[in-house]
Amino acid sequence: MENSTPYQLLGPEGIRRLADEFYNAMDELPQAATVRAMHARNLDEIKDKLYEYLSGWMGGPPLYSDKTGTVCLTEPHAPYWIGPEERDQWLLCMETALDRIEASDNLRAMLKTPLFRIADTVRNRDESTPRTNDPDVIAIG
Ligand code: HEM
Fold it and tell me: Cβ neighbours of residue 38 under 8 Å, at least 6 residues apart?
C-alpha cells in the first residue's frame, strides 16, 4: 500500500508483536547484554510501554502520550548511559524483532532512517560505556 503509515501496515496486533519480540531479542542476544542489564528482570511492563509508544510514533493512537502527557524520551532515559554502542544494541534488537515478525521490505525501508534517528536522539553520551578492562582504567581495591 502506497502512502500507508507503519500503523496501517502492522495494526495494533503487529505493533504488539514487534514490542514483545524486541524485548525477547534483548533478553536472548548476547550482543545486547549491555542494554539488557539496564532493564528490570521482568520485561512485561516495558513491553507494554514500548507498544504504547510505538502505536503513536507509527501513526496510530497516541497511547503513551495519553498516559504520560509527552512523547519526550529524554527524561526517562536520563539515568542510563546511552552511547553509540548502546544505541546500536537497541537497533539490533529492533532489526531482530522486525525479522521475527516477518516485516515486509517496504515496512523495513520505511522505518530504517526514522528508527536510527529516534535511537540516536535517545543517545545521551558520545562514548559507549567505559570498559573495566580498558587499559587506561586502573582498578581500585
Ligand atoms: C538507544 C538506546 C536505548 C536504550 C539503551 C534504552 C533503554 C531504556 C531503559 C533502561 C529504560 C527504562 C526501563 C525500565 O523502566 O525498566 C527505557 C525506557 C523506555 N524506553 Fe528506551 N532505550 C533506548 C531507546 C529507546 C527508543 C529509541 C525508544 C522508542 C522508540 C524507547 C522507548 C522507551 C520507552 C517508551 C520507555 C518507557 C519510559 C517510561 O517509563 O515512561 N527507548 N529505555
Answer: 80
